Amino acid sequence: MQTWKKSSIALAALVSASTASVAQERDQIRIVGSSTVYPFASYVTEEFGATTEYPTPTIESTGSGGGIRLFCEGVGAGTPDITNASRRMKVSEFERCQENGVEKITEAMIGSDGIVLAQNGDNDDLTLSREQILLAVAAKVPQDGELVENPYDNWSDIDSDLPDREIEVLGPPTTSGTRDAFEELAMGAVSEEAGYPGEYTDIRSDGAYVDSGENDNLIVQRIQENEAAIGIFGYSFLEENRGKIKAIAVDGVEPTTSNISSEDYPIARSLWFYIKKAHEGTVAPGIDGYVSLFMDDLMIGPKGLLVEEGLIPLDDESRKKWQEHVADRIELKRSDLE
Amino acid sequence: MSTRKLTGSANNPQIRRRYRAEKRFKAYCIGAVSIAFAIIIAFFTDIISQGYTAFWQYQVQVTIDYNDRAERLGQFALDRDMREVASRGATRSIPRAIDRNPDLLGTTEERWVPVKAEIDQYLKHGRDILEAKHEEVAAAPELPDKLRKKVDALIDEGRIESAFNTRFFTTGDSKLPELAGIFSAAVGTLYVLGITLLCAFPIGVMSAIYLEEFAPDNKLTQTIEVNINNLAAVPSIIFGLLGLALFINFFGVPRSSALAGGLTLGLMTLPIIIISTRAALRAVPDPIRQGAFAMGCSRWQVVRDHVLPSSLPGILTGTIIGLAQAMGETAPLIIVGMIAYIPEAPSGVFEAATVLPAQVFTWASEPEQAYVEKTAAGIMVLLAVLLTLNATAVFLRRKFERRW
Predict the structure, then answer these.
(1) Which range marks the domain in which residue B19 is found?
(2) Could you tell me which residue, B322 or A7, shows the higher pLDDT?
(3) Which of B5, B132, B230, B385 stands the most exposed, by the fewest C-beta atoms within 10 Å?
(4) Distance, CA of A54 to CA of A29 (rounded, Å)
(5) How far is the C-alpha of A326 from the C-alpha of A29, rounded, in Å?
(6) B222 and B165: one domain?
(7) CA-CA distance, B247 to B222, in Å (whole number)?
(8) Helices then strands (H, E): number in chain B?
(9) What residues of A are in contact with residue B255 (Cβ under 8 Å)?
(10) Nearest by Cα to B63 from B103, B98, B99, B113
């Protein structure tokens, strides 16, 4: 009888205790944001956890927009310390941050990510414009002011200067960040010039574009076997397979490390992270250590560990600039983003 | 064909037609069972054939030289030759080790460390194929020629060996596939299920007792009953949204913590526990209650001393099945932020934690070949735990259930 009473009181106490007091400070850094930056950031966190006395920070891959939303929710242990992004923060997002009291933010650029189109190494060199790429893979194309089902079977149908080769594009599936970037930078960015009424990013599903899974290695193997096919994948896979496959110049620019980092190559984007200054030294310990490890040449330098993982490093000058920028914790201003 | 002599009404064509219909129906049912069974077998064979290799791992014997260059960068503790064979994870903690124990400086140590994941994959899947066919196979993992010769030589010297992968059970997630393990996810699962049990079991059992033993049968209790049944069928992602709004945004429970996940799954498990407890209480025959009442027991005494003890096996079975369901759940945990890169095991309920199915999900989205076998191995561990839980439920029911 007594035991029943005691155990029920104990249970009630436990349940209420578990909801009542919540710790105000964390001993772990919390990071959210882009799934493109995630593999690089988690690499750094692991290194940080293994080489310092701090616990390994946690990273939630929420996408750039989702990450910034969480980041801008406010200041305090319940909100993240750092958010990663595969695009720059928008002015509207910056204003939301300000409204919610997240006033001091430092911006850090870590490098770029290039998306490469490549073909079999035995083929002749090929240059495509983004408009040609768009017309080859779009579900509908503009003709006489209307959108019609994509009629193009061969590259020469689009432009008679292009080779008489069947259009066969092997690319990432919709779940992939590479696909998002491809749609945005290679299709959406030029769709209005190509005669579409607005931004157009639908990819055709009649067999000319083949979803080839998340495994970029598989795409590389297929274009080694198939001379007609063109593959779309991350830059690091081109680097590993030079000789067997050949990159296609886009808008006349070859995808090389320097062209990507200088943004001359059009299908490239920069990778960023944002630091919440108010959390440093108050909410979570070790933010400074993590940030300086990330910005160190050991990670993002031209021979850094992240470059092995596929990051395109910044050129020496801008890397130095960003390293100093971050070390000085220069505040992000609205005018930087406009 | 065997001709059985049919007599009497069995010769009636109408009746024979009915027998044929019965046989056909039986054949369909057998077909259905075989399809279900074949799917399960195919699933298990696929998972096991992909995953069993993850329980073994190739290791290389290296000499670790605690010199002053290694004090800055752990890689320098190895021979130049070995740096591209041994996992980077084996050396990166050396500077800290020297920092803690300066006496190490100047000493050397022989140690077995895991090889890099690409080499591990080549040895597991690529080497045999290449040797058997003496030609390049497109799908087989490859190594650059120089490295391959080195690895082959090390194998001949006996300095690379395959061993049971204990690391898989003792470490958390890692970006280096050769170091990734399920330990932190398993600890996270324990915390989460503990909290789920603590919050769902008492509330669920007490609600069920009230509804079954004390509550009058009126419109109100009927409405509550219908709603509880509906709640059990609500998609789990909705409980995730509720958990986010209630626990994280309103009560301020830390995001990604075991507490947030456990409470959310507790909400989800609650209706299951209520329903199974009510069923167990209803299975206790009324004469037991009436007998106790006749002896002058109060309702509380009847419930405590007679109804509860005899329905306990049923209640526990329901609870275990509810917990097993909660354990395999991922959708609500995405919403409360538990699907994340969390390599360290949590040491309290307020710390960020991940769970086994979330770990499987994280690995499944990694691009490296080596995570394929990790994913399958993670699934095997998850299935083993679920089978154990369900077997416990069956055992409890068999052992303690009373038939009236």
Answers:
(1) 8-52
(2) B322
(3) B5
(4) 9
(5) 18
(6) no
(7) 29
(8) 17, 3
(9) 30, 78
(10) B113
Please say which residue of B160, B177, B194 terminates a domain.
B177
Residues B91, B171, single domain; the answer is yes
Cα–Cα distance, B296 to A34 (Å, whole number): 68
Whole-number average pLDDT of chain A? 84
B2 inside domain: no
With 0-12 / 13-18 / 19 or more C-beta atoms within 10 angstroms meaning exposed / middle / buried, residue B325 is: middle
Considering only the beta carbons, identify the residue of B198, B252, B341 that sits closest to A78.
B252
In this prediction, what percent of chain A has a pLDDT beyond 70? Answer: 90
A226 CB burial (10 A radius; 0-12, 13-18, 19+): middle
What the block records as the tokens of B229 is 């049944």
The pLDDT assigned to A5 comes to: 55
Pairing of strands A268-276, A105-120: antiparallel
pLDDT, tens digit, for every residue of A224-243?
Answer: 888 889 999 878 678 767 77
Contact A50 B252 (CB under 8 A): no
Same domain, B371 and B224: yes
Amino acid at A264: D
User: Are residue B237 and residue B363 in the same domain, yes or no?
Assistant: yes
Long-range Cβ contacts of B154-161 (<8 Å, 24+ apart)? B154/B60, B154/B85, B155/B123, B159/B60, B159/B61, B160/B58, B160/B59, B160/B60, B160/B61, B160/B85, B160/B115, B160/B123, B161/B58, B161/B59, B161/B61, B161/B112
The domains located in chain A, with CATH, are: 23-112+269-337 (3.40.190.10), 114-268 (3.40.190.10)
Q: Which residues of chain A approach chain B closer than 8 Å at the C-beta?
A: 1, 4, 8, 11-12, 14-15, 18-19, 22-23, 26, 28, 30, 38-39, 42-43, 45-47, 49-53, 55-56, 58-61, 77-78, 214-217, 221, 225
The pLDDT confidence band at residue A337, using thresholds 50, 70 and 90, is: confident
Q: Which residues contact A163 (CB under 8 A, 6 or more apart)?
A: A124, A126, A155, A156
Number of domains observed in the structure of chain B: 3
Residue A257 clears pLDDT 60, i.e. is over it: yes
Between the CA of residue A99 and those of A62, A96, A277, A332, what are the distances in Å? 22, 5, 16, 15
Q: Give the model's confidence band at A18: pLDDT under 50 very low, under 70 low, under 90 confident, else very high.
A: very low
List the beta bridge partners of residue A169. Answer: A209, A230
Is residue A35 pLDDT above 80, yes or no? no
- Chain centroid to CA A150: how far? 29
Most A CBs within 10 A among B116, B199, B255, B355, hence the mutation to make, goes to B255
Q: Do B340 and A51 touch (CB under 8 A)?
A: no
Would you state the structure tokens that stand for residue B344, as one six-digit string? Answer: 């360290």
Q: In whole angstroms, give the CA distance from residue B295 to residue B171.
A: 59
- Rounded to two decimals, what is the model's pTM? 0.75
DSSP string, B134-146: SS--TTS----HH
Letter string b/e over residues A67-104, b meaning 16 or more CB atoms within 10 A of that residue's CB: bbbbbbbebebbbbbbbbbbbbbeeebbebbeeeebee
Residue where one domain finishes, among candidates B177, B206, B231? B177
Spans in chain B with pLDDT lower than 50: 1, 136-139
Burial class (CB in 10 A: 0-12, 13-18, 19+), A218: middle
B113 and B217 fall within a common domain:
no
Lowest mean pLDDT among A87-96, A237-246, A249-258, B280-289: A237-246
